[in-house]
Amino acid sequence: MIKKLSKLIKDFTLNELRTGLKITAKELVNKKITVQFPEERTPISPRFRGLHALRRYPNGEERCIACKLCEAVCPANAITIESEMRDDGTRRTIQYDIDLFKCIFCGFCEEACPVDAIIETQIFDYVFESRQGSIMTKERLLEVGSQNEQAINQAKLEDAKYK
Amino acid sequence: MELWQAFVQILHTLIPWLDGTVASILIILIKAIALVMPLMLVVAYFTYAERKVIGYMQLRIGPNRVGPKGWLQPIADALKLMTKEIIFPTKANIYLFLLAPVLAIAPAIAVWAVIPFDEGIYVTNLDISLLYVLAIGSIGVYGIILAGWASNSKYPLLGALRSASLLVSYEIVIGFALVTVVMIAGSANLNTIVQAQQGGIVHWYFIPLFPMMIIFFISALVETNRAPFDVVEGESEIVGGTHVEYSGMTFAVFFLAEYANMILMAVLAVVMFFGGWHSPFEAIPYFENVFAWVPGIIWLLAKTTFFMFLYLWVRATFPRFRYDQIMHLSWKVFLPITIIWIFVVALMTRLQLGPWF
After folding, report:
1. How close B339 comes to chain A (CA, Å)?
2. Do A23 and B317 touch (CB under 8 A)?
3. Of A35, A127, B122, B290, which is most buried, counting CB atoms within 10 Å of its CB?
4. In chain B, whose CA is at the least distance from the CA of A27?
5. What is the arrangement of strands in the sheet containing A135-136, beginning at the earlier edge strand?
6. Complex confidence, ipTM
7. How far is CA B280 from the centre of its chain?
8. Residue B94 burial (C-beta neighbours within 10 Å; 0-12, 13-18, 19+)
9. Between chain A and chain B, how many beta carbons pairs sit less than 8 Å apart?
10. A163 falls in which pLDDT band (50, 70, 90)?
11. Contact A46, A39 (CB under 8 A)
């Protein structure tokens, strides 16, 4: 009886509604947590697997030796490699394509690579403007690598102690 | 009003060949434009305020890209809606389909004709203006029902049916709640009702009619299809209700009508229960003189803004009611309370209680 009466009083004084309104009123003046994306960014792990890049040695020689381990390990068959012997007798790729539509960004290619040539950078906001654009050719991969050399080295350095 | 007379005089001297009829039609037109243009602007920025307030309550920022702090967002929205294509459903009746938004917005604007903004500032002064508000206000539902029917599609039809039954239930409650005000004020003229509340905050009707004020506000939420009673749109249940088949400007007109109705209900709450244009500092010795220079229309707009904020606050807080719960609320809770309170008010009036009678 008392319980019923107290419930009735609570209902008619809009008790629960007022509690809800109080909470939203409090949040109205609280600090906002939105991250304004292009200007601000959320922190990214050094192991983040984003857009691919091919790296070079500090003397400018490209690292990739066309061993095709990445092509073999790629679960999505996204990598296509053709190789040839260069004039100085070393084996190098003449074609190194990654189809980003096929790629699942698993990072196996990076793990398989014996010379740390193919890696995945922290870049995640990129666009293609044509359907052909999804295929990252060797030139474009090397370009990504040279443009983001510092960021790549930094990420590798941060991750090194956990490896 | 003197200002208005002077304006009419100037109009006559500037264009002397104007005879009585043409001049009066011109004056009516000017009055209508002076009312509708600011209203549309307020509606546009009300949508902005809604997105901002709800965003802030959810710890977001809300629109902030178009213009400084997002101030041009409503303009961008309006331009987008105006330039979008209007798609007609293949089997819809195009005439009814296009008539529906017109039927929705015409009453929403027409009701504003009797709202008193300040002592003597109104478009028209009807003796039964409250009845006019209730009558024209309910015509707005024809637009929604017609939209649901003319779309020839199942979800709009469901939305229209829900809207019709909600309106039938809550029109009664609103009517009863406002009858108590009429009983106290002794008039159905909105001007007279506001004048009767003169003499400080204790004379405002929300004190003797507190439960009625709450019930009126909640019923107003239902009438204007606002959250938590927006079952007519009900995105999660019936996709978008009556708005499903509407796009571009036809949709925008529905949107305008809905928001014009919301603002109207806020103004009506102020006029009926919160002393209209009267200053809250009336009859308080020192403050009365300090705030004496503030025109009444500012007080009215300030109070209205509070109620408009309340709409957004409620929307950001509560989840949607189930349909049968809304019906239960109307018939089994609100209607008995209002009827009982009518008798209470009758008793209070008879006994001359308080400063209100």
Report:
1. 16
2. yes
3. B122
4. B57
5. A79-85, A91-99, A135-136
6. 0.71
7. 22
8. exposed
9. 33
10. confident
11. no
Q: What is the pLDDT at residue A88?
A: 86
Euclidean distance between CA atoms B357 and B349, whole angstroms: 6
Chain B closest-CA separation from residue A20 CA (Å): 6
Q: What pairs with residue A62 in β-bridges?
A: A56
Taking alpha carbons only, the member of A94, A87, A98, A92 closest to residue A67 is A92
Q: Which tokens belong to B315?
A: 């929307």
Q: Which of A49, A54, A138, A136 minimizes the C-alpha distance to A99?
A: A136
Buried b (16+ CB within 10 A) or exposed e, A9-28: eeeeeeeebeebbeebeebb
User: Which chain A residues are within 8 Å of B56, Cβ to Cβ?
Assistant: 27-28, 32
Q: Which residue has the tokens 């965003």?
A: B55
- Interface of A to B at Cβ within 8 Å reads 14, 17, 20-21, 23-25, 27-28, 30-34, 36
Pairing of the two strands A118-120 and A52-54: antiparallel
For B59, nearest residue in chain A (alpha carbons): A32
- Nearest CB to B59; choose among A20, A27, A36: A27
Residue B26's Cα: distance from chain center in Å? 27
Amino acid at B317: T
Model confidence pLDDT, tens digit, residues A6-32: 888 887 788 888 888 898 888 888 888
Q: With CB atoms and an 8 Å threshold, state whether B60 touches A34.
A: yes
Q: Give me B186's structure tokens.
A: 């002794």
